[in-house]
Fold this protein.
Amino acid sequence: MRLLHTSDWHLGRAFHRVNMLGAQAEFIGHLVTTVREHEVDAVVVSGDVYDRAVPPLAAVELFDDALHRLAALGVPTVMISGNHDSARRLGVGAGLIGRAGIHLRTEPAACGTPVVLADAFGDVAFYGLPYLEPALVKDEFGVEKAGHESVLAAAMDRVRADLAARPRHTRSVVLAHAFVTGGEASDSERDITVGGVAAVPAGVFDGVDYVALGHLHGSQTITERVRYSGSPLAYSFSETDHRKSMWLVDLGADGSIGAERVDCPVPRPLARIGGTLQELLADPGLARHEDAWVEATLTDPVRPADPMARLTERFPHALSLVFAPERAPDDPDVSYAGRLAGRSDQEIAQDFVAHVRGGGPDERERAVLRDAFDAVRADDVVREVAR
């Protein structure tokens, strides 16, 4: 059976101030063409179909168009909700849409109930594990501690129990939206850390033939059987070096895996450049970036006048300007934002305690801070879904 694995469409998302709906529509067209030309047997979409719980109408219309075009091909599609999606909204009409061969899996309770497709060698069971917010699903899965590993392990127990009851040669595919250990993150993914831990070990998924992951935006192979497709488009300058693609996966009669990448259309290349403003305007080696979306880091010791206006004279698609004067880390003029760059909310809070008290928090106090941040994040999820 030949599968096309994709995820993290983020329909409705902009790239800085650039509307990406046109590029997203081009990707959908490319997806449909790939399915037809490569004779794909099933499409799997591993979450974050939309960029937010209540997407703009134009994004909903694009998703509707994608569903109609996929259904018209007669190729089954299995989709799960991600942490950016509202599972309830995405799942509206799932039963009716399923009759057209588009199978939406958004209910955590249905993790152990697969979509079963068949090829010449028998059945393939597709298990959809939507994004499992630990605080919201721990009771459903009967786990004492709300953590990503515990709820995913419980969901996979249901998968393995169902699979064990099926004919011995049934092959299996799991769709999941999670941060798996060994994966490389970028700046454009929403933080899903719970209890100070975001990642789960790949061993959680042992016992199935292929795991189609979503959430991380870079295409990557965790193991031969566990892969991220990545997002089809770049959504931050941290993805400048990404090769945006989908996985074309051949699932053999014996459960063996063959996989190759299918590149996605690139609306415009990305470039990160740095130096003084005068250097960036004069360096002939930067000519190759004049048609790219540009993030420029200025190292001038004093902020120059009208830097963006001057920069866009040479780089008309410059979108982001970062000021990083070359100073020693202990220089008092280093910005507050610079001092906080790359630090988690937990670390910032612990540093604040140390600053005002003269000593950092002990383990019990660090646990209180973790619980507080987890409670706020879970409450944000509940509020967003309820909108």
Remarks:
- The mean pLDDT is 92.
- Residues 274 and 280 are 7 Å apart (CA to CA).
